[in-house]
């Protein structure tokens, strides 16, 4: 499969998953930002923010060839609306980066680093392939946190227990 065909298919898959992710982020409540169900769990606000920022990873994978977790700049939101807008902007940027992919571009290396140390190195295509799954994984965690806090879980792949009949 050529890189341009891969990128077009990836945009379609992103559209499918980002619509559900946006619904979850929209229901996040800032007063629960520091909530976590267990001491080793991520805080809820970071999960919402992570879901919002993973599309930005797509931009970095395609355009920069690396992300250093120590220097990756996160949004410091004050409202849920800021996170939703950040997500919407990042999805648009990811689609723009994907639309600009040319054949052969995804064979280049991408490195995930921590404080300059390479943690993972693979092709850009290999890293892209896991980004949507990564977002879906964290969205799933977020929905569990939502349920634990009596926030209605939206329909994702069909009606949720909270939206039966809608």
Automatic annotation (TrEMBL):
One MF term in the entry's GO annotations: metal ion binding
Domain of life: Bacteria
Residues at which a divalent metal cation binds: 134, 138
Protein's UniProt name: Damage-inducible protein DinB
Gene3D superfamilies per record: dinb family like domain
Similarity annotation: Belongs to the DinB family.
UniProtKB keywords: Metal-binding
Natural source organism: Flavipsychrobacter stenotrophus
